[in-house]
Design brief:
By secondary structure, this protein is α/β, with parallel strands linked by helices. Helix content is 51%, strand content 10%. The radius of gyration is 35 Å and the shape is globular.
Amino acid sequence: MIEPVTLIPEVFSRDLGLPVDQIRATLELIESGCSVSFIARYRKEQTCNLSEQDVARIADLYAKRRQIADRKYSYLKTIEALGKLTPELEEQIRSARTSQVLEDLYLPFRSKNNQAAHQAVANGLGALADAILNATDGAQDLNELAQSYVNPYNNVMTVQDALNGAATIIAERVAEDIELRQKAREVIAHTGKLSITSPENTADAATDAQKNAYENVHDPVKVERYKEKIRGDKEFERLVNSTLPLRKLAASDALLLFRAEKLDAVRLNLQFDSEQILESAYERYLLTAQSERPYAEFIRAAVDTALNTLLTPALTEEALRDLFERSQDHTLAAVTKNLRNVLLRKPLTGRRILALASQLSSSTAQCVAIDQFGNLLESATVYLIGSNRHEERAIATMTALIRKYNLSVVAIALGVSKNGEAFVSKMLKENFADQDVAYFIVDDSGAPLDAEAEAELFGKGSSFSFASEREKRCRLALSVARRALNPILEYSRLNPETLSLGLRQRTLNRKALRDAVTAEFSRCVNLFGVDLNRVDAALLRYVSGLNAATAKIIVDYRNAHGSFKTLSELPGISGIGESAYQQCAGFLRIYGGDNPLDALAIHPEMYGVVDKILEKCGQTRDDLKDAGKRALLQDALQALDKEQLTTELGVGQYALKDIIAELQSPESAAKVNYLTPILKKGTVQLESLQPGMELTGVVVNATNFGVFVDVGAQETGLVHTSRLNTQYVKDARDYLPIGQVVTVWVVSVDLEHRRLALSMLKPGTEFVRTRRRNARRSNEQSRGEDEARESRRPKRDNARSDDSSERAQRERGEDGARARGAHNRGRRDRAERGERSHSSRVIDVPAKPKKPTPLSEEMKQGKEPLRSFSDLWQFAMLNQIADDEK
């Protein structure tokens, strides 16, 4: 009976760099169904106060390892059912750490009913393949060996049929060789390059199936529009018709290329040194300790077939798939980081807002006015670009809306910020110079849900739903206005799959994007909790322990029975179990209810402990409603002996500390580190900027080479990676998220091209040279010294070196020459047959020279035999140097 595969905490500890005890406790809580926020907030005693970021890391790694563990268990049961499971194989499968190793181990046991090798084994030719591979020097003629396996009853009619079947079996064994596959992966990882060519520049025309693969699912008109958009992308123009190392390809560039290939706008070919793979295969299957194996030509042909048709194509697709997954993981991490900055921006509470968003084109925009509660007041269409008459009319329209409804903030969508910011700045300068009216830029990524999904999720009568036809027409502008009013509330009403936040999300897996955004959204919501009697199902679904279905159940119950009086009512609702209540109760708030503790960030399971603490302070729960008694409570809490109280109440020190902190400062939302939006009155003119000026701005976009910062000018400024920090920054997207408020200094202003260069390093700060650069400089200096030393050496040394090399060549043995020539003969044979040594997606590149392994002291003294021709060359050079010194 196969036992389930268990996860080992020690492995997690080694990978994450966290103590084993904390890992073990966290894994137990995760397996019991606890959320990341619940573990980090209310299970600090078990995890020894592990941070939420570390708990999230453990949870992410657990999800990946759990998936692999389940697959291991499934594979073990399958192999056991086949009767081929051995203790050694079981141990290898259980100890496999990566999915690649696991798949290699299971590859020989996959169903192969339609493959020629499986049929050849069924015909009894497996023994012939073994005899060919295991033949010794005294082997008989190949045809005579195959003659004994001719059997009409097994559909083996001739000797050639037997040999063909044996060759197919050998090719499959070579392709399934775990060591060879791992060697091939290493070669691809170190020498792999991605060749990007446009379809017009390649002779390999795409088939109709490839061209129509995307059109069969999507609108062909949209596909052509997407193609033109990608081809006009400056980043795409930089990448096309180039060759980039696989290891250095940026995540955003990789996703852009994969999407372009999907739309048939580009061809991607993986290049690597396939000769290294071929040499490794020949060494394993053709060579013995002294010479080539018997039947070497037959085996060589089978090895070529394995590499050309089985191994290389499979590993090529695997490498591209791994590149996509790595790029996706990197992009998802950036998306969640940017999302957190957007969600935790300080709400503009109590402000009436005018929003400006692009509706039809860059010259047309929709503007809406909302009150401090998010209700639509009025909407209008304005023209930002056009004649002076259109501009005057637009200014008059927006000015009338601001004065009519007493609006104080103008929210400009990022899509129209280039034209809209200058337009709004002019309007404010002309009509509201002496009034408190300002503007700021709002990210407009993400699409509001359609009306059907909206009604199903939010319920009818939701104050923020787009109920009327007038609201539906100005849906985007209304969403931008509400994002400015309360970001986390409005973003909860958007489709998570459409939140790109400055990055390319179209190529990402939709489920992966939705899961990542949902997890980060949940952590932000749980950071300060939600009012159970005010929020709708859109935001409630992100609370720990709840989902869209349970959130709608709670809202429907509230609509039918009125506001909740206490949190204890939740377990009585049909569909809300004890587990869901335990997870969500600590993040829900009821203000003005029967129980004052329900308004605090204290879990109901700790209410008994709170009562005892209040009793020691001479107060009760009802006293929390009195502001005067609350002031006395803070002094009493400060005088408590925390260590003695921990022992007396039987509560952990972390839980007690959180309870006392909450009783002292009940406004938990005020503890959130909000990012304050920068409200601007007007734009900054590039002509007025001088090098060295200090400015404050907001990061609006991030790339691998730098970040773009909005400092109030019509053009965003670029902070290059070399000016982000005194230390080396490899990728700016990993350093600064979108929405971050930063202080920058002007480096240069290019008025001709309208470019602004900024720096986050204060003038006079020196950039610290990195080790990598120092190492490169040292290598160049050493190489120069070696060349100078070589030029000073007498010319007779070169002649003597040549003589030594010739002697070394003459001294090579016959067996070594045969082994060295095996690979070259194989290449000549393939060239004569007109065969390719790689798949249609693979192009060979020259191999990089390898550094020779240094000689040991025993080899230098002649006490130990040399291992290779490289050793012989080094030995000859040492003798030459010794002669020169004499």
